[in-house]
């Protein structure tokens, strides 16, 4: 896979609303925050393009087209891989790494080395990770959003870090980072499998945007709006309400959502 050119990477910066700066923690934090705030985690585009094999992992130009024209974003593969390309182009020492969930390497993240200190940068987990997260911890590091609490654990003896999501006080989800740098081609089979008929994001809907102090997330028919440490949860009465709700909260046009959801049963838990 050929890397993107200077012109398209400069376009990426414009989409983020960020100017080019010398690599550093403040600059990395600005880039990370802009990405999480401006580019949602969503699988509407994945469902919309599911019959187009060329969109399994869109190149950067097509990824940016989706953001600018339709307010799309992506799942972990596109969001984190393209952010990896941008960070590498800007001069960061960044590694694309696999992460284990229910199966090995079904998630991808970025790790960045700044002056010998490692950071986790994950813009593809539908999580409020608006800043780089330090990996050289001697105690747990927590990030909260409404009733959700994300805990980053210190690395184990093998150098693996673990992220855990607690929802209403119960462990709900998580992943373990495998620190070995990887090439995106190593994930081709996993990406292809994510389009199988029984794959989670072929049978569920998840759209999420995060901002400083607030967030909005739609999981199937459940809409969660969080501020600080409180959340308001409402449930749509019927799936026919989804196109209007997604347009209102995320800007994706109703006709696109209708087409994307044709034949999707929404029985999986995202």
Strand segment tally: 13
Radius of gyration, Cα only, in angstroms?
18 Å
Q: Which CATH class is shown?
A: Alpha Beta
Helix/strand-derived category reads: alpha+beta
**Fraction of residues in H or I helices:** 25-40%
The major beta sheet can be summarized as: 8 strands, antiparallel
What overall geometry do the principal axes of the alpha carbons give? globular
Assembly state of the chains shown: single chain
Query: Which series of helices and strands comes N to C?
Result: HHEHHHEEEEEEEEHEEEEHH
Give the tally of structural domains: 1
Mean pLDDT rating:
95
Q: Counting H and I runs of at least 4 residues, what is the number of helices? A: 8
Q: DSSP strand (E) fraction?
A: 25-35%
Q: Spans with pLDDT under 50 lasting ≥5 residues?
A: none
Structure notes:
- The protein has one domain (6-261): Arylamine N-acetyltransferase fold (2-Layer Sandwich), CATH 3.30.2140.
- It has an eight-stranded antiparallel beta sheet, with helices on one face. Strands 1-10-11-12-13 form a five-stranded antiparallel beta sheet.
- The protein is globular and about 50 Å long.
- By secondary structure, the chain is α+β, with helices and mostly antiparallel strands.
- The mean pLDDT is 95.
- Helix 1 runs parallel beside helix 4 (60-70) and helix 7 crosses helix 8.
- The chain contains eight helices and 13 strands.
- It has helices at residues 6-16, 25-38, 44-48, 60-70, 76-89, 188-193, 242-250, 254-261, and strands at 41-42, 93-100, 107-114, 117-121, 133-134, 141-145, 148-153, 162-167, 170-177, 206-211, 214-219, 222-227, 230-235.
């Amino acid at each position: 896979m050929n890397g993107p050119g200077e012109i398209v990477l400069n376009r990426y910066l414009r989409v983020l609303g960020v100017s080019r700066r010398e690599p550093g923690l403040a600059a990395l934090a600005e880039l990370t925050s802009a990405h999480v705030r401006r580019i949602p985690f969503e699988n509407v585009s994945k469902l919309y393009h599911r019959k187009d094999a060329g969109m399994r992992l869109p190149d950067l130009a097509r990824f940016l087209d989706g953001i600018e024209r339709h307010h799309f974003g992506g799942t972990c593969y596109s969001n984190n891989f393209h952010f990896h390309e941008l960070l590498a182009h800007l001069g960061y020492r960044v590694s694309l790494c696999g992460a284990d969930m229910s199966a090995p390497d079904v998630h991808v993240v970025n790790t960045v080395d700044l002056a010998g200190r490692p950071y986790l940068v994950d813009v593809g987990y539908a999580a409020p990770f608006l800043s780089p997260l330090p990996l050289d911890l001697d105690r747990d590091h927590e990030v909260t959003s409404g009733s959700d609490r994300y805990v980053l654990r210190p690395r184990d003896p093998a150098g693996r870090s673990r992220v855990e999501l607690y929802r209403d006080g119960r462990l709900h989800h998580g992943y373990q980072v495998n620190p070995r740098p990887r090439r995106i081609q190593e994930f081709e089979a996993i990406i292809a499998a994510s389009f199988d008929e029984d794959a989670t994001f072929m049978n569920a809907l998840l759209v999420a945007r995060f901002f400083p102090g607030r967030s909005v997330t739609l999981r199937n028919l459940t809409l969660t709006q969080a501020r600080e440490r409180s959340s308001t949860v409402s449930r749509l009465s019927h799936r026919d309400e989804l196109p209007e709700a997604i347009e209102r909260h995320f800007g994706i046009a109703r006709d696109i959502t209708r087409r994307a959801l044709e034949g999707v049963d929404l029985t999986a838990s995202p």
